[in-house]
Amino acid sequence: MSTGTRSGPEGTLRKTDRTTLRRLPDRGSYDRETANALLDEALICHVGFVMDGQPFVIPTIHARLGRTLYVHGSAASRMLREGKRVPLCVTVTLLDGLVMARSAFHHSMNYRSVVVLGQAHEVTEAEEKLQALRAIVEHVAAGRWDEVRWPTDTELRGTTVLALPIDEASVKIRSGPPKDDEEDYALPTWAGVIPLRMVAGEPLADPRLGDGIRPSDVIARYRRP
Amino acid sequence: MSTGTRSGPEGTLRKTDRTTLRRLPDRGSYDRETANALLDEALICHVGFVMDGQPFVIPTIHARLGRTLYVHGSAASRMLREGKRVPLCVTVTLLDGLVMARSAFHHSMNYRSVVVLGQAHEVTEAEEKLQALRAIVEHVAAGRWDEVRWPTDTELRGTTVLALPIDEASVKIRSGPPKDDEEDYALPTWAGVIPLRMVAGEPLADPRLGDGIRPSDVIARYRRP
Q1: Fewest CB within 10 angstroms: A119, B62, B155, B157, which?
Q2: Mind telling me how many Å the CA of B122 is from chain A's nearest CA?
């Protein structure tokens, strides 16, 4: 499907013409462990697919198991009906900070992102499908799967799971202070980074929660990395 | 370009076959003010474009002025070279919480998202280009534009700005507690929402910051909504 493939060693993503970073290549990486860590940390991804020449970009929950990225949804969803027939792009982005330079031009953000390209296939085997759904619940809150009612056969049939190989992919990371033009360092403007992070607040109980049901450790100790 | 167009009143986005929510339509809205508020709150968007049938989804900074969404980047970037020739999809997503249901199946997230479809055009008029770049800096940190060195002609020439009409678009919002199957409310499992929010930390000064330069109010008082 792609040209210019370079076979990489075990821990390296497949670098192709399509995943070679042209802009600021020093921000890029093809390291599989780095990609895995970002895919695992990001709570959601954005899935891109094409219909009649029009791209669509839809946010959804994902999970990684080994070298496979799973996304799921209703069997009736457009993304999942189309996604199993067409090439996908799945992107995750973690925002780390606002980069405040001395010039408008060098303002930026600190971020970590992964772009995965490829053809997804629908998971039809019952055990793999269940394990993918388990991974998706565990991705959001580790330990939660064992606390909840598992999917029924009817629910499983109503859920489509897509598997995308994590193979042709790239990582892009910007970190650190602004990089201003040399002559601008003399300006009296404050420059630096405003760090950003996602934080979890106090759990809000369902108004219909039964009397005396307390949050488990999974919930009460939930923290973002 | 699209079929099934319904002309809406002033404050309504254009609902087409392509932006009609098929899944859980009660989560959808075509209200322009709601879309504007989400586009303004989100720090980044994900831009989808197609090359040789392959979708690409790239995170980038955006800004809104009236009914136009601007994205920018190096004139050398693939996204911006391709984006001015092909249909785009720009999606912003704000994560508000993890929805912990009693069943695996009803786990979800609280989020607010906007999907904008359309054909972008490159901004070539100098004053509109400058105003778009101003809007992008102000979008990230209101008040910052007046503190920094403005773009030179060379920088302006090296920057491509795309304008996408905010017209054919839809909003999707999930909020509130989990919605479990009626019989599952009797389970002894804690259920509710873990709220999520993006917070800004203490500003980190550039190691090369000149002596005695203090953060302005724009920086020192920076808060996320």
Answers
A1: B157
A2: 18
Residues of A in contact with B173 (CB under 8 A): none
Q: What per-residue confidence (pLDDT) applies to B140?
A: 95
Q: Cα–Cα distance between B148 and A190 in angstroms, integer?
A: 9
Distant-in-sequence contacts of A206-209, Cβ < 8 A, 24+ apart: A206/B177, A206/B178, A206/B191, A206/B192, A206/B193, A207/B177, A208/B177, A208/B185, A208/B191, A209/B190, A209/B191, A209/B192
Could you tell me which of B49, B93, B52 has the C-alpha nearest to residue B73?
B49
pLDDT at B4: 40
Annotate B57-71 with DSSP letters as a single string.
Answer: EEEEEEEEETTEEEE
A47-57 tens-digit pLDDT:
999 988 899 99
Contacts of residue A185 in chain B, CB cutoff 8 Å?
208, 210
Confidence of residue B20 (pLDDT cuts 50, 70, 90): confident
Which residue ranges form the domains of chain A, and what is each CATH number? 25-177+196-203 (2.30.110.10)
Q: Is B93 exposed, middle or buried (0-12, 13-18, 19+ CB in 10 A)?
A: buried
Residue with tokens 């039964």: A210
